[in-house]
Write a structure and sequence with these properties.
Length: 733
């Protein structure tokens, strides 16, 4: 009993000692003050309940004299009493002091570890045991980085500068209880639903323990119930969380949390023994958390003009590699729970598969519904192909007339093209040639439908063209038809065009591909000192040049009389971007969008981000010629083991990137790879006679290279280089 009383007294002493150290006193001075305070506190108690100061290990370490009566009087009553705000909150500075104090207590006095760290354990229980206390401790939940650093310190068990394992274990135990409260306590859950309540920030602070929670041992007990609690939030609370994550979380922490969630999904994928449906059910709440982060990422882009992390960071490659997406897409079309419900996790190739399968299934169902047409004598709807018959010299006129008469379902059928007066069956090569010929015709400068930037070489809509909107509608329709037929289109539109197709509002940074000089000028204007803005002598009126004529445009009513100042320059830039990217090309873009949506509008299209849609239509700029080699086929006596073929690939792999692009254009008509990589291109290499003085040739419509049997590597290299340098193909020059 006496020993217990001494331990209790010693614990009281430790708390008082820590209090004085936190107030800034040196440890030895704080110890003397604590001894004196302890004696004063116990003066009315029975002797048996007082702490034996002379025997205290801390007292024996104190080398400073006792404070005088005057000094003792200077200690106010409030100094000895508990400050409620200090006791119930935790910040990084206080945490560091607590760790130092506890470590010093244990090392200097050989005190029991549990006793030395008791005060810290109690603080952990209080702070991390309730959402309200947790949030209050870190500037009402706004100091996310400090929360992450605090977790780092509390989970660090290294002997040099860490905490004992009992602290880490106690924190883990406390967090387990907290997430269970968030998941199960209906009253708590209702409270954090309140839009104005900062307690909701616990759903931002707790994930800052991502380095520890990434370990599988915490998945069942902390991460899953936490995600379940987050999933139970109402729409207003989730929307508020999206705003907080988009604004208050630094990129490195955002990436860390995302990596933690990917690790959970991947681990479940490779260790799950049930079916795909039960697997999805197990991880759907974690995917809901990822979905919230994805929306926060997009909101940040809308507000700041850039993403926190690239959208590809949300792809889970094991899921894309292991899941049967043909089956998953079918489940999605039948409105069952599946991975397609969370498309941000899918790569662009699987999204393209979803788009094409969706069109195929819709077409199949349409044919079934139209089966009765057989009994009425009208079987046109049962035609399995979309057939175009065009004359080469009238390709635009013929295409317009036929495409305008087709239904949306017809536009999603496989395309077959017949050039009038020419022999041949379209097995894919003719349709590819058709797209090359008609797009080259439509972007011809003689029509003035587009303006090309000399620096970026991208094409932008010409709002002052004399061509009718129906021609822009034709281009949109062709883009949609090309998507369904897996044909790459060599039209160098800027990403902002695809952004507009996906109903996203353009921002200043979108000028980069259209007019980089204008972007530079706008940024300089925004960065100028206030007194320098008026020296630019700008008004809310701009000039534009088209077909040699100069036109003036007022960005707002009376704009020619409104000077640009430091106060209204943000408005000037916003109106300039709106005019250039939206208002000035509205008629042309609306027509193009109308044509595209006729061929492609579906729920599957909503899966895509603008840059993914661009990849789908134009292909990937990144080239891996080892993938091209893996997918290549050989004919007319060549095999992959033929010395001539090995010689060819050795020359190709030694080329620089620019020459590789020229080779790809020479063989396929485009310098880009399909959305799922060059291995899907299926290039065919055949022997071209027996003469070795001939240059290689190609049928771009069939990705077909005719390669003479060159006897040496140097001759192979020389003739191949000459062929690709002299050929211009159909690419935009």
């Amino acid at each position: 009993m006496e020993r217990k009383r001494n331990v209790d007294a010693e614990r009281d002493f430790i708390k008082i000692f820590q209090k004085f150290v936190e107030e800034g006193h040196e440890p030895n001075v704080a110890a003397a003050m604590a001894i004196e305070a302890q004696a004063s506190k116990n003066k009315d108690n029975a002797p048996s309940k007082r702490m034996k100061v002379s025997n205290s290990p801390i007292a024996m370490e104190v080398k400073t004299p006792m404070r005088t009566d005057g000094d003792s009087d200077s200690m106010s009553e409030s100094s000895l009493s508990s400050d409620e705000d200090d006791e119930e909150t935790l910040d990084l500075a206080r945490l560091k002091r607590m760790i130092v104090i506890a470590r010093d207590l244990q090392e200097s006095s050989k005190m029991d570890e549990e006793v030395a760290y008791e005060s810290m354990l109690e603080t952990i229980s209080f702070v991390f045991g309730e959402a309200q206390n947790f949030v209050r401790s870190f500037d009402n939940g706004t100091n996310v980085s400090e929360a992450q650093t605090s977790f780092e310190m509390l989970f660090n068990t290294s002997k040099k500068d860490g905490v004992p394992k009992l602290v880490r274990d106690h924190l883990v135990s406390t967090l387990k209880k907290l997430v269970q409260k968030l998941k199960n306590d209906g009253e708590t859950r209702s409270r954090i639903h309140l839009k104005q309540n900062d307690d909701i920030r616990v759903f931002v602070l707790l994930p800052m323990a991502y380095r520890e929670l990434e370990a599988s041992e915490h998945h069942d007990s902390i991460l899953e119930p936490f995600c379940a609690a987050l999933s139970s939030l109402n729409s207003k609370a989730r929307f508020r969380l999206v705003n907080i994550w988009s604004r208050d979380v630094a990129k490195n922490h955002f990436e860390g949390v995302l990596a933690m969630l990917h690790n959970f999904v991947t681990l479940r994928l490779y260790t799950w023994e049930g079916g795909a449906a039960s697997l999805f059910s197990r991880i759907s709440r974690v995917l809901t958390f990822m979905q919230l982060l994805f929306k926060a990422n997009e909101l940040h882009e809308k507000r700041e003009g850039r993403l926190i992390v690239s959208a590809e960071k949300f792809y889970n490659e094991p899921v894309n590699r292991e899941i049967n997406f043909h089956q998953d897409i079918q489940m999605w079309l039948d409105n069952e729970m599946c991975f397609c419900k969370f498309p941000f996790i899918m790569n662009a190739a699987n999204k393209a598969l979803a788009l094409r399968m969706s069109a195929q299934i819709q077409m199949s169902r349409s044919v079934q519904r139209s089966f009765m047409a057989l009994f009425t004598g009208d079987a046109s709807d049962l035609t399995p192909y979309m057939i175009l018959r065009v004359r080469r010299d009238q390709i635009v006129r013929d295409s317009l007339q036929q495409l305008q008469r087709m239904s949306e379902m017809d536009l999603r059928k496989p395309l077959k093209v017949k050039f009038v007066g020419e022999e041949g069956v379209d097995e894919g090569g003719v349709q590819k040639e058709y797209f090359q010929v008609i797009t080259r015709e439509l972007i011809d400068p003689k029509y003035g439908m587009f303006k090309q930037n000399k620096k970026t070489r991208t094409l932008w809509l010409n709002g002052r063209t004399f061509e009718a909107p129906v021609r822009f509608e034709l281009i949109g329709t062709l883009l949609g038809v090309a998507v369904h037929n897996s044909v790459l289109i060599d039209l160098r539109f800027p990403t902002v065009l695809y952004k507009k197709l996906m109903k996203k509002v353009p921002v200043l940074s979108d000028l980069a591909d259209i007019n980089p000089d204008a972007l530079k000028g706008m940024k300089q204007l925004l960065a100028m000192k206030e007194e320098d803005v008026e020296d630019c002598d700008l008004t809310f009126e701009i000039t534009e040049e088209c077909f040699g004529a100069i036109h003036t445009v007022a960005l707002k009513r009376g704009g020619e009389k409104i000077a640009v100042t430091a106060k209204n320059r943000d408005e000037y830039v916003r109106l300039y971007v709106k005019h250039l990217l939206m208002e000035s090309v509205k008629e042309q873009f609306d027509a193009m969008k109308k044509g595209f949506m006729r061929a492609c509008d579906s729920d599957a299209l909503k899966m895509f981000r603008p840059e993914e849609l661009e990849l789908l239509i134009c292909g990937r700029p990144e080239l891996d010629f080892h993938d091209l080699e893996k997918g290549a086929r050989y004919d007319d006596g060549y095999t992959k083991d033929d010395p001539i073929i090995k010689r060819f690939w050795k020359v190709v792999h030694e080329m620089d990137v620019e020459r590789q692009r020229k080779l790809l254009t020479f063989v396929t008509g485009s310098d880009r790879a399909p959305i799922d990589g060059l291995s899907k291109l299926r290039m065919v290499i055949t022997k071209s006679g027996s003469e070795t003085d001939r240059l290689p040739s190609a049928h771009t419509c069939f990705n077909h290279l005719l390669l003479p049997p060159y006897k040496t590597k140097s001759l192979m290299k020389k003739n191949l280089y000459i062929a690709i340098e002299q050929s211009e193909g159909f690419g935009l020059k």
